[in-house]
Amino acid sequence: MPKVAYQGIPGAYSEIAVRQHFDGEVESHPCQDFNRLFDALQTKAVDYSLLPVENALAGSVSGAYELLLDQDVRIQAEVILHVHHALLANQGAALAEIQLARSHPQALMQCQRFLKRNKIEAVGWYDTAGAAQDLAKNSEPGVAVIASTLAGELYELDLLANEIEDEQFNYTRFLLMGHGDPEPSDYNKTSIVFATRHRPAALYECLGEFAKRDLNLTKLESRPRRNRPWEPLFYLDFEGHWQDPLCQDLLMQLLQLTSFVKMLGSYPAVRSGTVGM
Q1: Do residues 131 and 103 make contact, with C-beta atoms less than 8 angstroms apart?
Q2: Is the CA virtual torsion 172, 173, 179, 185 positive or negative?
Q3: pLDDT at residue 276, as a whole number
Q4: Would strands 143-147 and 100-103 be described as parallel, antiparallel, or unpaired?
Q5: Is 43 a catalytic residue?
Q6: How far, in Å, are 18, 23, 133, 268 from residue 27 at the CA level?
Q7: Is 210 a catalytic residue?
Q8: Region 96-109 average pLDDT
Q9: What is the distance between the alpha carbons of residues 5 and 2, in angstroms, rounded to a whole number?
Q10: Kind of pairing, strands 48-55 and 3-7?
Q11: DSSP states along 31-51
Q12: Active-site residue among 34, 38, 172, 210?
């Protein structure tokens, strides 16, 4: 049974993503922060670590891509989780009694219409599952939390309402990290990070190499480069596996055009048309 580290405490959405990817046949290891995710992997305390990298509504997860650059690991797979929020309270509570709801600010923001409709005040908390755990330890009348249904089950809270998020298109993308290269699948993505040379049209020339080979980009994002102000790094995902001849040719050309290239991994990915199915 694989051992997989995730950030958060039991009941976190990251744990749900771990269970989803491994069909429940997994030994989950909670970690306090992203750095400990990678520490667990490097010390071989776990076989894999699951890292959230972006949300369809909130964008990129701060600090995640910088860690990918610094660590000597490879992406093993892409995991897409459809996030559903639930309103949870201590046993015996009723929805009409709830006056306050605690959760991570992002979760509260994603449930604004539900909270307004039910005249519930939003109170920021450090974590969704943490809010559930804290309420279970210290029962408070009129107080609920917004977290996952798994958190409700683990901390024995009553489910007052489910799928209360304002937007149904709420997905979080995770990357499963490990050592070595996974075998190619029917549909693969390759993730790289690179820096262009400081001259006109440098990025244009790099992106043109993908167009020449009809390789589809699925992500392009610039991030600040530490210790080099105003010289960004570009994080890019494209369809294909590094073992494909076209991809090998592309990577060789990028080495000539850029000042720096690092491959983060070629891995089995989720087709956009199957997300949410």
Answers
A1: yes
A2: positive
A3: 53
A4: parallel
A5: no
A6: 9, 11, 21, 21
A7: no
A8: 95
A9: 10
A10: parallel
A11: ESSHHHHHHHHHTTSSSEEEE
A12: 172
**3-state DSSP assignment of residue 217:** strand
What is the rounded distance in angstroms from the CA atom of residue 137 to the CA atom of residue 141?
A: 13
Q: Which DSSP helix (H) or strand (E) runs through 220?
A: strand 217-223
Looking from the CA of 134 toward its CB, the CA atoms found within 13 Å total: 16
How far is residue 249's CA from residue 164's CA, in Å, rounded to a whole number? 48
Q: Position of tokens 């939390």?
A: 145
Nearest to 265 by CA among 245, 238, 246: 238
In the chain, the amino acid numbered 188 is: N
Angle (nearest 5°) at CA 49 between 77 and 31: 150
Task: Answer for the pair 143, 135: CB distance below 8 angstroms, yes or no.
Answer: yes
pLDDT single digits (tens) 146-194: 999 999 999 999 999 999 999 988 999 999 999 999 999 999 999 999 9
How many Cα atoms occupy the beta-carbon half-sphere of 35 within 13 Å?
0
3-state secondary structure (DSSP) of residue 266: strand
Name the catalytic one among 34, 38, 114, 174.
174
Cβ burial 162-182 (10 Å sphere, 16+ → b, else e): eebbeeeebbbbbbbbbeebb
Whole-Å CA distances, 33 to 25, 29, 147, 171, 255 = 24, 12, 19, 21, 33
